[in-house]
Design a protein that fits this description.
Length: 313
């Protein structure tokens, strides 16, 4: 159960969001198996009040990728220069890791575009943060969410609010959460992608941050092994809170070594509050989170609160 509150800003804050933004769809990672899902996603986004434009190579296919590395780099380049304000990844998969050293990150930051995606897109968001400090968004991708047979209403609503600057606070059930009331830079994403960037120039050095994580198709021991790598690298101890989203689609082993055991292990090894239940990951309900933004997190009475936007009234 997720509750969220959207408060419309006063006139002073709202002026930059007067007219609906446009969304440019591009494919920086895997090839799209069902092209009709892109058309469907555009229709749904149009219905939400967003004008849409699809990159010329969004449906390209090369091996497992949405085009060659050169094609996908060109798509990233086009995304900076086109007129729409929001740039949305059509899907994740695999492929951005191959491009990191060839992207002009400063030009991306300077473009002022708001980039949105998750899963493989974690590499893009974290590289942008590490290289420039710019904020991007970890949220629903076009095909999986807006091109789904029945898009989740809450996911759709929160995406719209996040893009209009209206998502100020949301709460979620977190019955076993550690007590916390902190502020810090929100960062993270897909656990495997986060770990893949360790030791590279694309890993953000965030101190006193709020780290959020999810993964798909990874057995509990593999999740623990990746968390161990972050632990030994000193990353976990430097955070003010660790938010765990959904860890889905893995085969449960018969030895009782499950996700609860991993969370218990994590809590015993870090002196940092751990909060489970974040509605984020390869799941139906998916919140849109600003990567690199200063946010607040608090827990009380079995609920966790994430304060995305604080206004001084």
């Amino acid at each position: 159960m997720t509750e969220h509150h959207a408060h419309h800003h006063d006139e002073h804050h709202a002026c930059s969001h007067c007219s609906p933004s446009g969304i440019y769809l591009f494919s920086p990672s895997g090839a799209i198996a069902e092209p009709e899902r892109v058309r469907l996603a555009c229709e749904r986004l149009n219905a939400l009040g967003f004008k849409t434009e699809v990159d010329v190579d969004a449906l390209a296919v090369h091996q497992r990728f949405a085009g060659t590395d050169e094609q996908r780099l060109a798509a990233i380049d086009r995304s900076m220069r086109q007129p729409q304000d929001i740039v949305l990844a059509t899907r994740g998969g695999y492929g951005i890791s191959r491009l990191l050293h060839q992207v002009n990150w400063q030009a991306l930051a300077d473009s002022g575009k708001r980039y949105v995606g998750f899963s493989d897109f974690t590499a893009f968001s974290l590289a942008l943060l590490a290289q420039t400090g710019a904020v991007s968004y970890s949220g629903p991708t076009a095909v999986a969410y807006f091109g789904a047979d029945e898009p989740d209403e809450l996911t759709t609503e929160m995406f719209g609010e996040a893009m209009r600057g209206e998502l100020e606070l949301f709460s979620f059930e977190a019955p076993d959460a550690d007590p916390v009331d902190e502020h810090g830079v929100l960062w993270g994403g897909n656990l495997a992608m986060v770990v893949s960037l360790l030791g590279t120039p694309y890993f953000p050095q965030v101190n006193h941050g709020i780290l959020f994580l999810e993964d798909v198709g990874e057995a509990p021991y593999r999740i623990e092994r990746m968390l161990t790598q972050l632990l030994h690298a000193g990353v976990l101890a430097r955070q003010k809170a660790i938010l765990l989203g959904a860890f889905t689609e893995y085969r449960q082993s018969s030895d009782g070594y499950d996700l609860a055991v991993v969370v218990q292990w994590l809590r015993s090894h870090v002196n940092v509050p751990v909060i489970c239940g974040l509605p984020y990951g390869h799941t139906d309900v998916m919140v849109t989170l600003p990567v690199g933004k200063q946010v607040g997190v608090a827990t009380e009475d079995g609920l966790a609160y994430l304060v995305i936007d604080e206004h001084q009234h």
